[in-house]
């Protein structure tokens, strides 16, 4: 799945399959300006910052069990969001510091380091990476991902895929080759 925010005409948090199909709104009420999003891949939660409502909130992958993690004026200056273990990590653009927020006790907030011009934060750690099973976009015997000549996108499950072409090409009638 692909998760993303939108604060155009109607602010929302959405999800879709990697090929863009099955687009679903998972948060569409009490949301104004969602600017950052992070996933808890293990527990299947979606966290987001709303700088207009000055809140950090969470829902499960279906948009249920919504909770506010923290709220207040300090949210207005946050950008970027990452989750790892019991904490959320974000950047305070006002003080240029990386913050760690305990996602179960929002009063536990610590500034970890100061960085000039930081706008995004990511956690790279083996335990934060989901184990990958074999999937429909694995290379075939000829090295083509999922048997697609250009681009392979996972579809509704790890067993299904959709082939796409680079700009200037069209997908052939076989659904795999680009011309």
From TrEMBL:
It comes from Oriolus oriolus. Pfam families: FXa_inhibition, Ldl_recept_b. LDL-receptor class B repeats lie at residues 1-43. PROSITE patterns: LDLRB. One of its GO terms (biological process) is canonical Wnt signaling pathway. One of its GO terms (molecular function) is Wnt-protein binding. The lineage of its organism: Eukaryota, Metazoa, Chordata, Craniata, Vertebrata. One of its GO terms (cellular component) is plasma membrane. This is LRP1B protein. It comes from the Eukaryota. InterPro entries: 6-blade_b-propeller_TolB-like, Cueball_EGF_LRP_Nidogen, LDLR_classB_rpt.
